[in-house]
Design brief:
Elements (H helix, E strand, L loop, with lengths): L1 H10 L2 H6 L1 H20 L9 H10 L4 H8 L15 H16 L1 H7 L3 H32 L1 E2 L2 E2 L6 H28 L4 H12 L1 H14 L4 H23 L1 E7 L2 E4 L2 E4 L2 E7 L6 H22 L5 H9 L5 H22 L2 H10 L11 H36 L7 H39 L1
Antiparallel strand pairs: 1-2, 3-6, 4-5
Helix pairs in contact: 3-9, 3-10, 5-13, 6-7, 6-8, 6-13, 7-8, 8-9, 8-13, 9-10, 10-18, 12-18, 13-14, 13-15, 15-17, 16-17, 17-18
Length: 448
């Protein structure tokens, strides 16, 4: 069976892709949805002076606003209908997953299967609308206080502007949430991750041009640019290596006799990835750090840079010890938290015992669950260290040498991980198409 799969994998080529009509439709749907998203990042909200806004954002491009603008694909800097991007949905998902872990009602609902998960997803959507409305109101108030000299970024401030901004930004977030769900269901890859990746990739040419301009003006040396770009390639290779790394646990199945036939006696492997949580921890950590600091930064941009607002803005700036510590701590926390949600050792051990499988040298049941938990915990420690290192070391270089955020560890991790996941799904569709073709040929031969 394995040799057949390897032959099919090796035989996948462009001709096979050209025949996979469903896969082509899914890819075209995904690309069309992402084009719609990118067009929306250029539609400004009503009542904004673009010139004044651009000047204000240029002064704050190196702080929290720059990080938020990266995730929104430049939509925040242009203050468009997608300025909040998908971050309220991610924040709502974090809250719902935390509540599911501590609330018996939500935990029981999650165990009901598909119907329970649909209800939890619906609650997540409600939470997204609420968070988006709150953040949109904060942005509207912050925009009214943002000034470049004596000129305000808002043409006609007041209650009507705040109401229109809330409706526009909340509607944009809800629309992106729907687009992401449609990509997941009818396209290729995870829609939410692809939307974030599309925003980062769309700004990579500008980031590269900015870096080269810094070298041209002498702000940074040409040798450093070459070293930094080479290091980025090395980080990409390291991410690919770790994301594909697995710990394979041998699982054996005993022989059993049915009549005169002997069945079983086979062995397989239970693969445990080093980074089971994927790209979720850095995204969750970034969104939580951005959530409380966004409004404070907006108000500080308006000139109110004293008191607790100025303190928050200063301590959560890139390269500051508090920002680094919180970022690493949140990444480690969400790595363990999300791994515990994705992989349940007790449930896996029960499934192995149900189908007669066992790990050599380990008794089925609780001992197997403890053994799996022991291995998974140590793998997660390595995975958390890997995520923290990839995300935080480039941040230190960025804060020291003012290289654009798009070359940061978080952005590279998101782009590489989402690309690998999407390619894997395309590969799976092509394999399924190859199997369907072989089955059809076998049936035709059988009829003859």
């Amino acid at each position: 069976m394995a040799s057949v799969a390897e032959q099919l994998a090796n035989s996948i080529n462009f001709s096979a892709f050209s025949k996979a009509t469903e896969l082509k439709n899914r890819i075209w749907f995904t690309l069309g949805a992402l084009v719609v998203y990118r067009l929306g990042t250029y539609i400004p909200i009503p009542g904004i002076d673009p010139g004044i806004l651009h000047e204000i954002f240029s002064r704050n491009a190196g702080g929290i606003l720059g990080m938020f603008d990266m995730f929104s694909g430049g939509a925040l800097g242009r203050m468009t209908i997608f300025a909040l991007n998908i971050m309220p949905y991610i924040s709502a998902s974090i809250i719902m997953q935390l509540l599911t872990a501590v609330s018996p009602t939500l935990e029981a609902l999650n165990k009901e299967g598909e119907s329970g998960r649909k209800k939890i997803n619906q609650y997540t959507r409600y939470g997204t609308v609420l968070l988006a409305a709150v953040q949109a109101y904060g942005i509207a108030v912050g925009l009214e206080g943002m000034r470049a000299g004596s000129q305000s970024a808002v043409i006609d401030p007041g209650l009507m502007f705040r109401l229109v901004t809330m409706i526009t930004l909340t509607g944009g977030t809800v629309f992106l949430m729907w687009v992401g769900e449609q990509i997941t269901a009818r396209g290729i890859g995870n829609g939410i991750s692809l939307i974030i990746m599309a925003g980062i990739v769309a700004n990579l040419p500008h980031a590269l041009a900015s870096t080269l301009e810094l070298g041209r003006t002498g702000a940074i040396s040409s040798a450093f640019i070459i070293i930094f770009l080479g290091m980025s390639v090395g980080v990409v290779a390291f991410i690919v290596f770790i994301e594909r790394a697995q710990r394979r646990i041998l699982v054996q199945y005993p022989k059993r006799q049915v009549g005169n036939r002997m069945f079983g006696g086979d062995s397989s492997h239970l693969p445990l990835k080093i980074n089971t949580s994927g790209v979720i921890p850095p995204i969750f950590a970034s969104s939580l750090l951005l959530l409380p600091a966004t409004v404070a930064t907006f108000q500080a941009s308006g000139g109110d840079n004293t008191g607790w607002i100025g303190t928050i803005t200063a301590y959560l700036a890139h390269g500051r010890p508090l920002y680094m510590a919180l970022y690493v701590g949140l990444i480690i926390f969400f790595t363990f938290f999300y791994t515990a949600i994705v992989f349940n050792p007790t449930e896996t051990a029960d499934n192995l015992r149900k189908y007669g499988g066992f790990i050599p040298g380990i008794r089925p049941g609780k001992n197997t669950a403890d053994h799996l938990d022991y291995i998974l915990t140590r793998l997660t420690v390595v995975g958390a260290a890997y995520l923290a290192a990839v995300c935080i070391l480039p941040e230190i270089l960025i804060s020291q040498y003012s290289v654009p955020f798009y070359f940061g560890g978080t952005s590279l991790l998101i782009v590489v991980s989402v690309t690998m996941d999407t390619v894997a799904q395309i590969h799976s569709h092509l394999l399924a198409h190859q199997y369907e073709g072989l089955i059809k040929k076998a049936r035709l031969r059988g009829r003859r």
